[in-house]
Design goal:
alpha+beta; Cathepsin B, Chain A; 12 strands; about 15% strand; globular; cysteine-type peptidase activity; Peptidase_C1A_C; Peptidase_C1A_papain-like
Length: about 325
């Protein structure tokens, strides 16, 4: 009887394992339909499928958690290994910790309780007429260039009444060109745009993911779509100044932020992202475009630069008020001419 029970139990386990394998295979076939990977060698195909299976297990486990505050889904990152994912993150980033102390830079102050009471309970610029469509940095660590540009685009439109797409490629080529796709800091880039006399339009200087054109006079001679203000062009906030960010957003200014990135973040889909970081993750520059509360959790509405296919139309709701993954550490925005 004991032997028979053992055989039956093994058959049950085997059946469950086969069903699980069938589920993964069906998910893989669906993924290939939605995200074609093109012609691959047998070895490359096997590698991609193995990467997919690993993230698929994480997604299934996470989405099955009744206490999860957000959902995950497959996207372009599902078939990438850790080294490939790092290509989308920063290799160079200087903290804004001392930025607000620099001469000539404006800071947000007087953030007392009365100010908080005057702020609206929620703000969301994702569908504002001045918000450019979500862009795609591609396999290049140029997220700071995209964050810096999104802030300038929005500010320029709010002040001058015309929505103009600006050139991230100008930043990649001309500001710290030795870094190429290694990235940099948005406040460094804004300073370089001041020296360059402004930022070119995307039409005049289009983006080429993963490539850097030769540095030269061409970097500075493209038609400019926006210029930073002559007086107090950069607005810097102290670390953890949640109310300062909310105040700036209420003034129709987007705020660049930098976070540490987990694999779960890279496969985020909907809801409020709340997963803590371990401290050894890569950094990624993004933009706060609003704030609010969902099911009792305070959040920032964040604009990403991984295409509209990422998250919810290219955006993510990110837990607010606890400096999750450093989101309230490096805070800055601009004034434009």
């Amino acid at each position: 009887m004991e032997k028979l029970a053992f055989v039956i139990s093994m058959l049950v386990v085997g059946t469950i394992g086969m069903c699980g394998a069938e589920d993964v295979e069906a998910a893989w076939e669906k993924y290939l339909t939605e995200f074609p990977i093109g012609i691959q060698t047998k070895a490359e195909y096997g590698k991609r499928k193995l990467n997919f299976e690993k993230i698929h297990a994480i997604i299934e486990e996470h989405n099955a958690d009744e206490n999860a505050t957000y959902t995950m889904a497959h996207n372009q990152f599902s078939i990438m290994d850790s080294e490939e994912r790092k290509q989308y993150l920063l290799k160079n980033f200087a903290s804004t910790k001392s930025l607000y102390e620099e001469l000539g830079l404006e800071t947000v102050e007087d953030n007392d309780d009365s100010t908080m009471r005057q702020l609206p309970p929620s703000i969301d610029y994702r569908k504002d007429k001045c918000m450019q469509p979500v862009k795609n940095q591609g396999g290049c660590g140029s997220c700071s260039a995209f964050a810096a540009t999104a802030v300038v685009e929005f500010a320029n439109c709010i002040k001058n009444g015309k929505s103009v797409s600006l050139s991230e490629q100008q930043i990649v080529d001309c500001d710290f060109p030795d870094r190429e796709c290694g990235g940099g800091s948005y406040h460094e880039y804004w300073k370089s745009l001041i020296k360059a006399g402004g930022q070119a339009t995307s039409a005049a200087y289009p983006y080429i993911s993963g490539e850097t054109r030769k540095r030269g006079s061409a970097c500075l001679n493209k038609p400019k779509g926006a210029k930073l203000a002559a007086r107090k062009p950069i607005v810097a906030l102290k670390e953890r100044d949640e109310m300062g960010v909310m105040k700036l957003l209420s003034q129709k200014k987007l705020v660049a932020v930098c976070i540490a990135v987990t694999d779960k973040f890279m496969n985020y889909k909907t809801g409020v992202y709340t997963t803590p970081c371990k401290g050894d993750e890569g950094l990624h520059a993004i933009v706060a475009v609003g704030y609010g509360t969902f099911k009792g959790i305070k959040y920032w509405a964040i604009r990403n630069s991984w295409s509209a296919g990422y998250g919810n139309g290219g955006y993510v709701l990110f837990q607010r008020g606890i400096n999750l993954c450093g989101v309230e550490r490096d805070l800055a925005t601009v004034n434009v001419a």
